[in-house]
Amino acid sequence: xxxxxxxxxxxxxxxxxxxxxxxxxxxxxxxxxxxxxxxxxxxxxxxxxxxxxxxxxxxxxxxxxxxxxxxxxxxxxxxxxxxxxxxxxxxxxxxxxxxxxxxxxxxxxxxxxxxxxxxxxxxxxxxxxxxxxxxxxxxxxxxxxxxxxxxxxxxxxxxxxxxxxxxxxxxxxxxxxxxxxxxxxxxxxxxxxxxxxxxxxxxxxx
Length: 206
Description:
Blueprint (H helix, E strand, L loop, with lengths): L9 E4 L1 H13 L5 E10 L2 E9 L9 H16 L4 E8 L10 H13 L4 E5 L1 H10 L6 E6 L5 E3 L8 E3 L4 H10 L9 H6 L13
Helix pairs in contact: 1-5
């Protein structure tokens, strides 16, 4: 049986949801960025079907814009049978793999509504090494909230708790990096500045 906080869950992320978050981080290399994961629980698997890039500026930890974003996102995706199932964070510094207060606090908020929530932290070193090693594993670290209410890094240990739905996701990502596809990504920050900008990124992969 899966325990109440989803300790035995596996996470499978759709290729486009995965790539969208990484392109967002690449677009704002000198800033911390974040996003949310949309999906559903199917047995012991959390299926992450989409993602929404949130912020890239000083607003990243502010509650009012975050609440506006989460309400808007939930309203849109609930009609598709999807809800917020996790949180993505990329730190400002390339070599920083610490899970900071902002990331923990927002992930705690998601956890209150979805106890199997995943917190994904970008591993820039893995991302940078992709061109050479052609690794198929996600370039993100998986964190889960444990019984002590702390977010703990889930070691892979070969059991693949976090995988991409399409094994070739990193190859496709490298193609998009080569073509500087990150320039086309819109986040909620951009949308709040100019509401004509599409936070859904509907045409990003067309």
